[in-house]
């Protein structure tokens, strides 16, 4: 049985080191905004090259609080793609904003930068580029558009911890970066967790208050905030795992390369963005006959998954936005053809070849 995610192998490798840190956190008994949160925030900021990092309760909260911190409010429009996890767009709605979708580029699977400008109105306030499956967006073009129309950029880095664009880490390119530490992410904890990054002191200060009931000093509240803090125990886990993130991401890239060599040209691949380094949160390929590959894998007890089977504009939750089938043909096509193979730092070369061969045999 080969699962999509293999935390057991991770624990066999670095579990002892992590358990020691969990134990220390337990003994220190400072579970809320304790020393590990500060330590992890500092190390993460240093790793990403940004000034500020703020640990929060989830990636969804990171997006919500980041949008609040840049001032998104009732009636504001925020541009993103319909080919992402729903949290990207939910966060816009939490602030009273309206998600305005722009189709993705078929090759990179990221927002099609040539289709953004036609969706900008005088209510547009921000763009959320999603570095999907770990592949950075074309940030040069997005920054150019944002500058021209005075829009903020909130990067959804939930799937791209460690990915770079022109050598700069994602989350340190736009105005704000939003990370998720959901267990399956490239940098994952053992529960829910998230983080906001920025170089802007005002955004930093606002986000800091928003995560903790609008408060800087206990029982003095400057604004209405939320309860959204990263747990000390989760921060302790992340602190250890951060040390290995480059190794983990490089191993993912090695797996990806071997998959492509093994499978060959019977499937479509996500193209790495020019000047970008993809960290392969998911290894996602395309085929009109994906069901055959998925079934063959299943017969051999190998997991696979479809991210994402329904684009956001066709979700019942977003019916009220008024989109219909055909509005975003590329996203709709990808939803019908994509499938993802197991990828993690602990997948062995022999396993990658076996999986690749099964996919190839099912599709040629
Ligand atoms: C996982 C994910 C989120 C949400 O993160 P959570 O920690 O699960 O709340 C947001 N956006 C994208 C693209 C994601 O993959």
TrEMBL record:
Q: What's a single GO MF annotation on this record?
A: transaminase activity
Which GO terms are recorded in the biological process aspect for this UniProt protein?
A: polysaccharide biosynthetic process
> Which residues are the active-site ones?
185 (proton acceptor)
Q: Does the keyword Zinc apply?
A: no
Superkingdom to which the source organism belongs: Bacteria
Q: Which UniProt keywords apply?
A: Aminotransferase, Pyridoxal phosphate, Transferase
Q: What residues bear N6-(pyridoxal phosphate)lysine in this entry?
A: 185
Does this entry carry the keyword Zinc? Answer: no
- PANTHER family (alphabetical): 3-OXO-GLUCOSE-6-PHOSPHATE:GLUTAMATE AMINOTRANSFERASE (PTHR30244:SF36), TRANSAMINASE (PTHR30244)
Q: Which family is this protein grouped under? A: Belongs to the DegT/DnrJ/EryC1 family.
What's this protein's name?
DegT/DnrJ/EryC1/StrS aminotransferase
């Amino acid at each position: 049985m080969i699962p999509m995610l293999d935390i057991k192998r991770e624990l066999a490798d670095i579990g002892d080191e992590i358990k020691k840190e969990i134990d220390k956190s337990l003994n220190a008994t400072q579970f809320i905004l304790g020393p590990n949160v500060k330590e992890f925030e500092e190390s993460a900021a240093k790793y990403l090259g940004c000034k500020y990092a703020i640990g929060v309760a989830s990636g969804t909260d990171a997006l919500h609080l980041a949008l609040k911190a840049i001032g998104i409010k009732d009636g504001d429009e925020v541009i993103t793609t319909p080919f992402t996890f729903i949290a990207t767009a939910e966060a816009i709605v939490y602030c009273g904003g309206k998600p305005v979708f722009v189709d993705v580029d078929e090759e990179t699977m990221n927002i099609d930068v040539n289709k953004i400008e036609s969706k900008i109105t005088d209510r547009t306030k921000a763009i959320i580029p999603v570095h999907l499956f770990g592949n950075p967006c074309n940030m040069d073009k997005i920054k150019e558009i944002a500058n021209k129309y005075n829009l903020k950029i909130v990067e959804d880095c939930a799937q791209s911890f460690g990915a770079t664009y022109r050598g700069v880490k994602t989350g340190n390119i736009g105005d704000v970066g939003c990370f998720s530490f959901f267990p399956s992410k490239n940098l994952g904890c053992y529960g829910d967790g998230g983080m906001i990054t920025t170089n802007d002191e005002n955004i930093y200060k606002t986000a800091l208050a928003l995560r903790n009931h609008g408060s800087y000093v206990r029982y003095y509240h400057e604004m209405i905030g939320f309860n959204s803090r990263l747990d000390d125990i989760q921060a302790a886990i992340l602190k250890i795992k951060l040390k290995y993130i480059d190794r983990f991401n490089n191993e993912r890239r090695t797996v990806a390369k071997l998959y492509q060599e093994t499978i060959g040209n019977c499937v479509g691949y996500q193209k790495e963005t020019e000047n970008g380094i993809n960290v392969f949160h998911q290894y996602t390929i395309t085929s009109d006959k994906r069901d055959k590959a998925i079934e063959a894998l299943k017969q051999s007890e190998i997991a696979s998954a479809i991210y994402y089977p329904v684009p956001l504009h066709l979700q019942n939750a977003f019916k009220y936005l008024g989109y219909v089938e055909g509005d975003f043909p590329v996203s709709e096509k990808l939803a019908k053809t994509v499938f993802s193979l197991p990828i993690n730092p602990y997948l062995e070369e022999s396993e990658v070849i076996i999986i690749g061969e099964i996919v190839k045999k099912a599709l040629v």
